[in-house]
């Protein structure tokens, strides 16, 4: 797994959609397509959302255009990407080729960004489990997991219905599914986490910060007629605390929280949804 952080500098001031993850996703695919069409196609066709994309993170001005905001020319912006694909090295290399070695420009509809910094970290499921075990060993069962849901998070509950609250069962069940779908087949028995939604609900308490709560309607795709396909999501700061949880449960939950930094939470993560930042063990 890889996490890639880009620092971007706009070439002028121009409007971008308020929820710009979908537009940024299109720009990323276009850049990948220029260097490796097979990788671009695989990322686009992935059923698990193997690439996470935060969209543009930073400070913006208002815009006269509806549902848009304006990039500030002398500001810098961050773009976080995660690669949970089992062939992550190929995707990472294509991203590096696109934004470092071939061309350092991210081209959006109304303006471009220059890539001023490209940084990455990598890990494996096994290393995440080792880190989680070490954290649990170093702390008692009262340690907390602080999650900042930075971009609109769309966790599917039933059909096309998404939850509008960072419920422990919904959030960690979603992460468990992503974990199970991305672990290497050869190590599935070793790395599988034997948890259920009921386990999360019985052993965790969520403590959302109401002052940071916002709801969103996000463009995630377009229909055959070109019409927008929207999904509902939330952003919030939320703390998860253990309640009478065993060491194995605390390790599994902590591992999933660390994993979310790479895989995102919920659906449509490639379109700018579900980017989180996590602090564990404080």
Automatic annotation (TrEMBL):
It comes from the Archaea. It holds the Pfam family CRISPR_Cas6. InterPro entries: CRISPR-assoc_Cas6_C, CRISPR-assoc_prot_Cas6_N_sf. Residues 147-276 form the CRISPR-associated protein Cas6 C-terminal domain. This is CRISPR-associated protein Cas6 C-terminal domain-containing protein. It comes from Haloferax volcanii JCM 10717.
């Amino acid at each position: 797994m890889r996490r890639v952080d880009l620092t971007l500098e706009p070439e002028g001031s121009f409007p971008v959609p308020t929820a710009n993850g979908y537009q940024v996703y299109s720009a990323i695919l276009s850049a990948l397509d220029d260097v490796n069409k097979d990788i671009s196609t695989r990322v686009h066709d992935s059923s698990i959302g193997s690439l996470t994309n935060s969209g543009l993170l930073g400070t913006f001005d208002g815009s006269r255009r509806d549902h848009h905001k304006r990039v500030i020319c002398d500001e810098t912006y961050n773009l976080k990407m995660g690669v949970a694909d089992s062939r992550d090295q190929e995707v990472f290399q294509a991203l590096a080729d696109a934004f470092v070695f071939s061309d350092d420009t991210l081209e959006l509809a109304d303006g471009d960004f220059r890539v001023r910094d490209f940084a990455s970290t990598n890990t494996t499921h096994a290393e995440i489990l080792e880190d989680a075990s070490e954290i649990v060993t170093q702390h008692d069962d009262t340690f907390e997991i602080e999650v900042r849901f930075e971009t609109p998070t769309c966790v599917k509950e039933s059909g096309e219905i998404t939850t509008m609250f960072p419920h422990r069962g919904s959030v960690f069940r979603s992460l468990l599914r992503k974990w199970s779908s991305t672990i290497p087949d050869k190590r599935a028995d070793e790395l599988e986490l034997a948890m259920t939604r009921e386990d999360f609900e019985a052993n965790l308490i969520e403590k959302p910060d109401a002052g940071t709560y916002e709801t969103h309607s996000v463009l995630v795709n377009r229909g055959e007629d070109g019409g927008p396909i929207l999904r509902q999501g939330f952003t919030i700061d939320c703390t998860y605390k253990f309640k009478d949880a065993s060491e194995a449960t605390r390790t599994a939950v902590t591992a999933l929280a660390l994993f979310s930094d790479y895989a995102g939470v919920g659906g449509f993560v490639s379109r700018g949804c579900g980017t989180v930042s996590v602090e564990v063990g404080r």
